[in-house]
Amino acid sequence: MRIAILGGDGFVGWPTCLHLSAQGHEVHIVDNLSRRWIDTELGVQSLTPMDSIQERCRIWKQVTGETLHFHLLDLAKEYERLKQWLAEYRPDAIVHFAEQRAAPYSMKTDRHKVYTVTNNVNATHNLLAALVETDIDAHLVHLGTMGVYGYSSVGAPIPEGYLDIEIDTPTGKRAQEVLYPTKPGSVYHMTKSLDQILFQFYAQNDGLRITDLHQGIVWGTHTDQTRRHEQLVNRFDYDGDYGTVLNRFLIQAAIGYPLTVHGTGGQTRAFIHIRDSVRCVELALDDAPERGERVKIFNQMTETHRVRDLAELVAKITGAEVKYLPNPRKEAAENDLIVKNDQFLALGLEPTTLAEGLLSEVVEVAKKYAHRIDRSRVPAVSAWTRDIGTRVDRDPEGRALKSVS
Amino acid sequence: MRIAILGGDGFVGWPTCLHLSAQGHEVHIVDNLSRRWIDTELGVQSLTPMDSIQERCRIWKQVTGETLHFHLLDLAKEYERLKQWLAEYRPDAIVHFAEQRAAPYSMKTDRHKVYTVTNNVNATHNLLAALVETDIDAHLVHLGTMGVYGYSSVGAPIPEGYLDIEIDTPTGKRAQEVLYPTKPGSVYHMTKSLDQILFQFYAQNDGLRITDLHQGIVWGTHTDQTRRHEQLVNRFDYDGDYGTVLNRFLIQAAIGYPLTVHGTGGQTRAFIHIRDSVRCVELALDDAPERGERVKIFNQMTETHRVRDLAELVAKITGAEVKYLPNPRKEAAENDLIVKNDQFLALGLEPTTLAEGLLSEVVEVAKKYAHRIDRSRVPAVSAWTRDIGTRVDRDPEGRALKSVS
């Protein structure tokens, strides 16, 4: 297939490009490189030294003989160029990663809130409008988030996107299937909730074939393909905005920094290893809905864990210390989470679960590049409200860390 | 109260400004005048001759002695100016009409889709982010639409925004209240569905006090205030994009144009007279939620009617002919609609229902200005999809109108 990978230079985008190229697909990376600009803005960098996208593509060609095509294009701002691009290349499938993806970044200041909404909503909507306008029947696979479901304890498993409900009518109860009621916990998560409504409309009105992947928190860094050459290495974020919880614990352990648990650590979240993430995209691509079908929604995760349990596990393996800090987020202190992921299992996904070997692999990567870490950028300090901001301690080395335990 | 009325130059915005000014409030109109620009773009004009906003404000001052303050500002594009404006004026309440509000316009071309999404989402989100940033605890009253509920027959009354559902859990059924599952039928309606999620998040995360008015189709043109001087007249749209169904029937009757029913006319919709619309905004303003409360949602409508019944009623009063035309929209041919509006009734709303006298008043207005009508702009021709577009007849005078009956 000819596959356009929007946001193909990012953390999940890049290994997905390599994976699909290795499967024999013609891969086109469409990216505005905004993630690299945000690194510049924040003054942080990937823990792993990351080459330019052009250089990465050159190395892949050298290693495998396969071409990755790169197109610099801003989905959110360049609607007419997007349309021209689609009309010229007419992809069979599109994988859409091209959104600002960090909750803490989206809550940093009002400018970051506005940027995240404008960028993410316009990117997704431009794509949908352009697909209709160019009359391209490509299967669109979008990277969403488990966060659209919210993290309150519902006492029932989270289904894959749709909820069966009963409504009282004058003639008795009536069963109905609805999009799972959304309860996003950050501006970033909110944009993925908005995306769901855009998808629902365009599938219904225009028959677009759309799959939405509600992904858990990705951990790990290597896939089989990124391992093939040092310059194909995946980006690896350790900073308080873009680093995600489990990877951050592993990095903190590697550099002798306390494992920073926010609040009680009773937050339960869904996880998936990067290797499974790229495999899920492949499986989803092969399982396209028909025209006129509702949006297909997968829960793209393999296991759930409580944050404090993860911290204790990493501490046990590495000997690191665990610190309980004030939570910069506005969220339930504790929640249960049971998630259905039957669809990917039925399609043949074999989950890579939290094994000590894989955890240690990440610690090894972190140790190898530890000299590149700016310790002052490790704490997560973007607060969800001004009030919360005053309670969040900014001391990078934990000397004055306030404890909530 | 000092009240900012965003979009205060529009069809419901303007009479709302006058109504609230007449109640003694300090009224600030904030508008980018985009609706006037769209008239220019489409080459149509309000049936009623409409003065500039500055002139309208001058007349109001002359007639009543009250000042209407006008501020030219683009909510969607001028975030920093919006923030400055809020910080300077610190309104006690904000009424937000500032969105592109025509479904057919939003479906006209891909450019119109993109404009509607960008404009509406950014306007609403900019406002929310700016309220948080300036730390202004104004009650925000937003004009939404009944269309967020969708128009399928659910066999149960549509509640006011929230639905009580039951979820299966391992320990039995569990009751939960959720936002009514949204099913918007156009890009325009979709933006109001997106707004709901923005409101939910900002009420929850930042304690913003928000009321969302799910309004039905507005009909009529005069309010007590617009009647006070010829130059205070409200705008009155008759064209196929901005004209709304009942008003269009009345105008068509006035100029001897057939009443154009799309599809079978079995669509059931909710209606409200413009006089009640401005009164509802007043009632909602006085009934603000507390900080931390969920978004308050009212169904702002007074009655429901089937489109073909309205056409027959107008035909009976006026002797006009009814024509059944292909439907440019993608929607259910027939639907039931029962709507709860208990909250406004409890607050004292006395509904102005479809009375022959009021219907005739609109016909009289239309006859008075009939010489301003471009008959070729009367048909609704913006089609929801390209396929539907090929079936929609564009002949303005009905000579070649295809019948679906």
Automatic annotation (TrEMBL), chains A, B:
Pathway: Bacterial outer membrane biogenesis; LPS O-antigen biosynthesis
Family annotation (SUPFAM superfamilies): NAD(P)-binding Rossmann-fold domains
Domain NAD-dependent epimerase/dehydratase: 3-293
UniProt-listed InterPro entries: Epimerase_deHydtase, NAD(P)-bd_dom_sf
Pfam family, one: Epimerase
Family: Belongs to the NAD(P)-dependent epimerase/dehydratase family.
Name of the protein described by the UniProt record: NAD-dependent dehydratase
Species of the source: Roseivivax isoporae LMG 25204
